[in-house]
Structures are given as structure tokens and as C-alpha cells.
Design brief:
Chain lengths: 120, 109
């Protein structure tokens, strides 16, 4: 059974860098069958795709966040990571990692989500 | 970038049919996927590729996609269907962009 689990600080100060990790269990993050993705949801608001990583080493980003975001993987730990720089209160959200099956391009598996609050 | 437009809310009585729209420019040329999200939970796909259902999703959930509008239809609505629903596409014209609609709150009266 494949599972995704987000982890990281729940509180980040304004102007600092938000860092989250998604640990994948039950499947290899190096599999060419999937994209691995970060999505976020501010409180009471909708879903926003942040970025995706493919095992070839290519990353894809939401243009609205591209200047501040890095999505990468550490294959030895089977982990997906997210770094978002220069955060503000507008970056307060539940951050989800998810999996996208290459052939159908929808999010077929999600983590439970991690709430990150940006506040001093 | 590509934009998907959903109504903020839809209300329906139990046993009736709910229809949630998702508008986008020539959206029929894309595959539309629908997610259900209940409070405090991660989203779950209920329809993919316009009209297919994952295993475990009731037949009451169906989808269609034509012209500039995709539609999620929930027949014989139950109280447990009350949730937020999001449509989503993959926009290949913008170098691998995943796009969500703004979401629709389904209220069961």
C-alpha cells in the first residue's frame, strides 16, 4: 500500500524559507510511471498546484510561484522536498504532496497534508 | 495560463440530482478530472478523464465534457455527498501545468 506523509515545521517566520518533506512508502519515487507533486490550500480557499517533479530530473512550476519555489527529490531516502523562499502570510496553507500517474495526469494519491502558518 | 471557472455553491435536496459545472476555453479538448473534498480531509478523485470512475466510487457520480463546459453530475444525492468539489485539467500548452477550478461547495438541503 503506497502512502505519502508530509513533514516539516508548522510555523515559519515572514521572509524566511518554508521547507517540507514528503516521504513515500510502498513505492519508489524513482519510478518513471509518476510525477510527484506539491499542492497547497490556504484556509477556507481552493487548491493550488505548486510544482511537480519527474524522475528524469525535470521539475515544473506554477508560474505564479516559480521565482520562489524549488521541488526536488532525494532518491536515497525516497523523499520529495519543497522549498519556498521569502514567505508571507499569504503562504499560510495546508501543503499536500500527491502522485500523478503518467498516463492519466490526475492526482490519484494524496498525503494527509501539513498545515504551515507564516507568522512572526 | 488556462483558467477553469466553477460556481461557488450548488444546493440540492436529498434524492435529487446535482450538476456542477466547470467552464474553460475549449475544455472539451482536455481531460477533466473531478475531486471531492470533505472538511479536514485530502481531496479524492471521483471522476477522471471526463467520465470514468475509479473503483469504489458510486455509479451516482458521472461526468461529461462538451464545448466550453465540463459537468459533474451526482444522482440521487445523499447527505454524505455534501463537500467541496474541484475540477482539474493538465494544460499541455503551458509546459506541464496542472490547473484547478476554484471549487464548488455542494450543500444538501
Amino acid at each position: 500500500q503506497v502512502q505519502l506523509q508530509e513533514s516539516g515545521p508548522g510555523l515559519v517566520k515572514p521572509s524566511e524559507t518554508l521547507s517540507l518533506t514528503c516521504t513515500v512508502s510502498g513505492a519508489s519515487i524513482s519510478s518513471g510511471a509518476y510525477y510527484w507533486v506539491w499542492i497547497r490550500q490556504p484556509p477556507g480557499m481552493g487548491l493550488e498546484w505548486i510544482g511537480s517533479f519527474y524522475f528524469s530530473g525535470r521539475a515544473y512550476y506554477n508560474p505564479s510561484l516559480m521565482s520562489r519555489v524549488t521541488v526536488s527529490v532525494e532518491t536515497s531516502k525516497n523523499q520529495l522536498s519543497l522549498k519556498l523562499t521569502s514567505v508571507t502570510a499569504a503562504d499560510t496553507a495546508v501543503y499536500y504532496c500527491a502522485r500523478v500517474l503518467l498516463d492519466v495526469l490526475y492526482f490519484d494519491l494524496w498525503g494527509q497534508g501539513a498545515l504551515v502558518t507564516v507568522s512572526s | 495560463s488556462y483558467i477553469l471557472t466553477q460556481p461557488p455553491s450548488v444546493s440540492v435536496a436529498p434524492g435529487q440530482t446535482a450538476r456542477i459545472s466547470c467552464g474553460g476555453n475549449n475544455v472539451e479538448s482536455k481531460s477533466v478530472h473531478w475531486y471531492q473534498q470533505k472538511p479536514g480531509q485530502a481531496p479524492v478523485v471521483v471522476v477522471y478523464d471526463d467520465s470514468d470512475r475509479p473503483s469504489g466510487i458510486p455509479e451516482r457520480f458521472s461526468g461529461s465534457n462538451s464545448g466550453n463546459t465540463a459537468t459533474l453530475t451526482i444522482s440521487r444525492v445523499e447527505a454524505g455527498d455534501e463537500a467541496d468539489y474541484y475540477c482539474q485539467v493538465w494544460d499541455s500548452t503551458s509546459d506541464h501545468q496542472w490547473v484547478f477550478g476554484g471549487g464548488t461547495k455542494l450543500t444538501v438541503l
